Amino acid sequence: MRMRRYHPLTLVFDLFSFIKNVAIFAFLLFVVKYQSQSFLFVWGRRVFAGIAVLTVVSHVFKWLTNRYAADETAFYLKSGLFDKTERTVYFDKVQNVQRHTSFLHTLFHMTSITFETGAGFLNSNVEFKAVTKEEADRLETLVKAQQVDSNNTEEQEFIVQEAETRVIHFTPTRRDLIKASFTSFSFLLLLAVAASLFSKLDALFDLEDVAEGWVLSLLKSGWLIAGTTIVLMVISVLVGFVWTYVKYGKYEIASDDKRITIRKGIVDETAFSILKTRVQAIEITQSWIKRLLGLAEVKLISAGGLGEEEQEISTLYPFLPVARAYSIIEEMLPGYEVQRETKRLPLKSLFVRLAKPYWFGMVSTALLAYFRPEPFGWHSAWWIGSIILLIIGIISRIADFASTQYTFTDGFIQISEGVLEKTTFLSRRDKIIEIKVSRTKLQQWTGLASIGLVNRAKPVRHEMLKDVSLWEADRFYSWYAGRVAEIKTE
């Protein structure tokens, strides 16, 4: 089998990433403080130059020595000059596939593609930072072909006719983008960027005195204040909408018989693909503002993990109407169905929660009592604050009790929790790898228990439902025992 080097632009992207990370230090050392003869800056320039040369040389040797190959079953990877490493990654271990096409990739008609295996060790992913789109298509097709059962004729035809069976479930309208712009507070982006830019420039050129003069002159005129405020608000809203459009304008949620695909981005294009059978669980979250607007964010939980970018792209459009979010889940994953009728915790679990110590309030009160300047006086108002903290703690526990709901029926479990931010967790029984039932002394006295479950993810996903009745805990054990009939061995 012929091993090939990675595309030469891989070296360019590595060097560009290094330059981007050190650009500020280089500008400071070689432009702003170039004339400085201070020991710190003189040796700083020398050390920086040495590190830069070593980094460039190491990237060149890395590109010269790293090679890869792929056949119908696996990737074969070789790396290292003196300490050589060889890896074989079989296609059936691939959990997710992600593509990212940045503006720089677009200029060279390239893309990047990452095959995530879900393994826990370092460098478990197979990453191609710069490949032609044809090569990326070839590698992804090899992976898809191997993951389909070769004995099933219909599934083989699916590979050929994939475009014909593909269903687009959601693309955002202009109204969706406007709502997303305000829900995500992207209209504040201009203020954040301006503040960050000013702080950086002020450190270099001392702009604070100049800005203070502008502010004082502005405050002298009411018309200027009103006009400037309106202009800044309009610009902020426009910038927020443009930023939202660039990020979500080409958002697409689609699926076929085997896979779910999420695409997004105008300038930087990203695509995330996952086999339906590899979805371990689903998480639906609603912040307080999304609850007010009737929106929800749905995240697919899988055994893979591609870092921060994957966490975002594995989310179905973050501003879906709740009803549409539920219907999309049921359309793409027939094994999942959001239950509208759920159970609440028994009333005695409320008393258990209220009886637990209020550690924050107790510590706050103890500190106030210890550091008080006098036995009586103005500081007694702080005792009122301590009582207010206790009342807030009681109300939050009551609200948490009221918002906790659950159900487990047939091969499915659903848990909803949270007051300000509501989270609903859904999983099939055959995707749960471990359960446990635990009881504290207080729960033993009141006939309650806590049930926990574990799903494969990176990191491993743990869910806990506290203070259910002991009868429900026993039923949960029996429910999970039915998993044996659903497990399919490879």
Structure description:
This protein has three domains: 4-147, no CATH class; 175-248; 341-490, PH-domain like. The two termini are 28 Å apart. The radius of gyration is 28 Å and the shape is globular. The relative contact order is 0.08. Strands 7-6-5-11-10-9-8 form a seven-stranded antiparallel beta sheet. The chain is an alpha+beta fold and 490 residues long. It contains 18 helices and 21 strands.
Sum up the overall morphology in one term: globular
Radius of gyration: 28 Å
How many distinct beta strands?
21
CATH architectural category of the largest domain: Roll
The count of domains is: 3
The number of helices is: 18
Give a quick rundown of the structure:
The chain is α+β, with helices and mostly antiparallel strands.
Topology:
Elements: E1 4-5, H1 9-32, H2 39-65, E2 67-70, E3 74-79, E4 85-90, E5 96-101, H3 103-107, E6 110-116, E7 126-132, H4 133-147, H5 153-160, H6 162-165, E8 167-170, H7 174-183, H8 189-205, H9 208-219, H10 222-248, E9 252-255, E10 259-264, E11 269-275, E12 279-286, H11 288-293, E13 295-302, H12 308-313, E14 315-321, H13 322-332, E15 343-344, H14 347-355, H15 359-371, H16 381-403, E16 405-409, E17 412-417, E18 422-428, E19 432-438, H17 441-446, E20 448-455, E21 461-469, H18 470-481
Antiparallel strand pairs: 1-2, 2-3, 3-4, 5-6, 5-11, 6-7, 8-9, 9-10, 10-11, 12-13, 12-18, 13-14, 15-16, 16-17, 17-18, 19-20, 20-21
Helix pairs in contact: 1-2, 7-10, 14-16, 15-16
